[in-house]
Amino acid sequence: MTTTTPAEPGQPSEDLQRTIPAPAAPISKAGIAAVVVTVVLWASAFVGIRAVGPSFSPGSLTLGRLAVAAVVLGIVVLPSLKVWPKGREWLPIVAYGVMWFGGYNVALNAAEHMLDAGTSAMLINVSPILIAILAGVVLKEGFPRWLLIGSAVAFGGVAMIALGSGQRSTADVAGVLLCLLAAVLASVSAILQKPVLRKFTAGQATWFGIMVGTVCCLPWTGQLISEIQAAPPAATAGLVYLGVFPTAIAFTTWAYALSLISAGKLAATTYLVPGTTILISWAVLQEVPTIWGLLGGLICLVGVGLTRRSPKRRNSKQPSPKRPSSKAENTAN
């Protein structure tokens, strides 16, 4: 004879408890603040790049911005840096350093010589869709129906922006393509940066990437020196602003938020960047996207929003745990 003791009256069985998902941990106030700072400063970067663009070429602007960020963030990071990456740990750091801090910035700077700040921000905002697609391939998360529908809608918006731009100048089409290239580089980098944050702090992971990007941009050193000598003080001040705030600070707050939030959910917060950029651009540069750019950008946002929809769950009622009798059940061998 073996005796089994049932669960306490009113308590679900162990098997049922296993099927109940744990509630998601709430995002801390510091995490929310980091997201807000990132959105506002990245939005200001689109306007800042547009403002200093006449004085600096894409490559030299990237080098100057990264050099300022490397010095400012290095002052904060180096005193507490005790462990450096080793061996294969450098691979993702070098990858997102080259693609995000180097390639992304050069492509975006070049694009904003052809497109206004608001349109550029809306095109870059395709990045969350790309992150979701990469997660489906790399992380084996699959491709939900709403992901495919939203992606089709968003890229329809991109086509509308390209069509409207092409009616004015073929150079604008090149700007659209450069923005899409920047979005791809940022999306891949966001996924590569996530595991690095398991060992290194947000500031350290950001500084490593900035240093890699700076090394990649060193060929533009001579051009940067000559352009700084010819640039008005306001343009040089704008370059310093881009290095300190949208780069050193905003990329660090992004990394901090990424250490707390999943990449997909954090990427969704960048939906707020285009609207914020348009407001800042309107106030500072008095420029508003064309009607094609505005409508296409709105369609992009709608498409990205559709990708965040969850499929309806089927109403499957789980049987409530039976209330056991007060006596233990005896089962024969």
Q: Calculate Rg over CA atoms.
A: 25 Å
Assign the structural class, choosing from mainly alpha, mainly beta, alpha/beta, alpha+beta, or little secondary structure.
Answer: mainly alpha
How far is the N terminus from the C terminus? 6 Å
The quaternary state of the protein chains shown equals single chain
Order of helices and strands: EHHHHHHHHHHHHHHE
Give the percentage of residues in beta strands: under 5%
| Fraction of residues in H or I helices | 55-70%
Q: Which stretches are low in confidence, meaning pLDDT under 50 for 5 or more residues running?
A: 1-24, 325-333
Number of strands: 2
- Summed over residues and divided by their number, the pLDDT gives a mean of 80
Q: How are the strands of the biggest sheet laid out side by side?
A: 1-2
Shape: globular
The total of helices stands at 14
Summarize the biggest pleated sheet.
2 strands, antiparallel
